[in-house]
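Q: what sequence does this backbone want?
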């Protein structure tokens, strides 16, 4: 809103800045009336009506919903509500962090999405990490949902529109033998899925064991069987889940090169990105990582040092739609493609899809059940439309998701106890 005011100078009514006023300033002959503002001109019904017309929407409450996932509902004084998802492996901590953030955003305008992202991140003295990333993600998604509903358009239209008409998907296969996993991969390929992710070592997971050498040999065996089953037209994604030490990741890369995988995913633990240099020096198979990155800063080293060919942020873990777009923009500068990690329900999947549709350097998006029957929707619905291995733009304003709060209230929150893997000697191994 533009304000104008008239200033009086001495006994006359000449505008400030005349020769007489300049002389007064030079001689330091100030008097109080020189800077008296006629406040009466800033009052009155016309100004009040203008302020009322431009009054912003306000956030009135943020409700955390912990069921099968972690969701938030952001309510406003205009009756428009937005929903977001922050499901991760520490749901109780995420719920607590959302409660910590509430005082910083209640009463604010939900359309100031970037301002509120910065407030949630920077008003905390201790920043970053998976809990903060997921809490901000849930709130950020809900704000985009509100803005889309307010304007009556899908979120992807607010992000610059469609950079592509559809998003390629990759699906998952599992199996306890090379024959079983190859058969499952063939079924996905026959359904039109053109990229398949697998990891192996499911049998040893069942007995809480991980042995690097045994796992490498099994992944080589599985890769050979899957390639033979699906032919050369399907891309293979070898998932290591961050389990290997660098030496064993190198061993794996050497043995599977002849099967032409699209990339190796998370070959080593994520704490020290520079360890990827060692793998880089021994193989030209593309590398991918990033699902355990929780904001743009976690991706800086991967990109500036050329350590990966694909980055894999998760919209529910990395700070939401606002932040995944910044990560993608950083990657674009280095000609690195984005493959969003996505293992959540319909709400998180919708947010990931809206972002993927609008970002220019997205290669494809993860959808574990692609090529299979969709799992039952939980409190959020619907799943995206999938045809021939591609996801199509959601319809409806905002994220295009319906949220059943009554159903959510009836769904118990499951415990989140992850597998406790050990090596043969009893030492701790990563899941």
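A:
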């Amino acid at each position: 809103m533009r304000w104008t005011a008239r200033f009086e100078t001495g006994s006359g009514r000449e505008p400030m800045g005349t020769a007489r006023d300049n002389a007064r300033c030079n001689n330091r002959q100030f008097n109080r009336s020189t800077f008296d503002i006629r406040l009466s001109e800033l009052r009155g019904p016309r100004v009040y009506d203008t302020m009322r017309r431009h009054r912003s929407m306000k956030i009135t409450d943020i409700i955390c919903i912990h069921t099968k996932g972690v969701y938030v509902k952001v309510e406003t004084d205009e009756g428009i509500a937005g929903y977001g998802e922050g499901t991760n492996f520490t749901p109780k901590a995420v719920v607590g962090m959302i409660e910590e953030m509430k005082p910083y955003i209640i009463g604010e305008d939900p359309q100031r999405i970037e301002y509120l992202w910065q407030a949630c991140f920077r008003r905390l003295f201790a920043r970053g990490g998976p809990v903060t990333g997921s809490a901000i993600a849930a709130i950020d998604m809900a704000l985009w949902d509100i803005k889309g509903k307010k304007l009556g358009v899908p979120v992807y239209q607010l992000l610059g529109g469609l950079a592509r008409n559809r998003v390629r998907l990759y699906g998952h296969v599992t199996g306890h033998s090379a024959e079983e996993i190859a058969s499952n991969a063939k079924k996905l390929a026959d359904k039109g899925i053109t990229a398949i992710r697998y990891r192996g070592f499911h049998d040893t997971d069942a007995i809480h064991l991980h042995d690097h050498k045994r796992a490498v040999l099994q992944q080589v065996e599985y890769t050979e069987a899957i390639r033979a089953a699906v032919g050369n037209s399907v891309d293979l994604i070898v998932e290591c889940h961050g389990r290997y030490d660098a030496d064993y990741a190198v061993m794996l890369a050497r043995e599977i090169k002849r099967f032409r995988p699209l990339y190796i995913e998370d070959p080593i633990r994520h704490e020290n990105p520079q360890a990827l240099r060692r793998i880089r020096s021994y193989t030209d198979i593309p590398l991918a990582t990033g699902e355990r990155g929780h904001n743009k800063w976690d991706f800086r080293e991967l990109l500036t040092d050329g350590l990966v060919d694909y980055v894999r942020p998760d919209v529910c873990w990395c700070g939401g739609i606002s932040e995944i777009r910044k990560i993608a923009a950083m990657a674009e500068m280095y000609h690195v493609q984005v493959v969003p990690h996505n293992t959540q329900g319909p709400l998180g999947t919708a947010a990931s899809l809206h972002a993927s549709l609008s970002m220019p350097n997205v290669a494809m998006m993860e959808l574990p059940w692609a090529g299979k029957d969709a799992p039952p929707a939980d409190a959020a619905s619907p799943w995206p439309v999938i045809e021939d291995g591609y996801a199509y733009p959601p319809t409806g304003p905002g994220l295009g998701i319906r949220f059943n709060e009554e159903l959510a209230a009836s769904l118990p929150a499951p415990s989140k106890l992850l597998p406790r893997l050990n090596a043969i000697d009893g030492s701790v191994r990563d899941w």
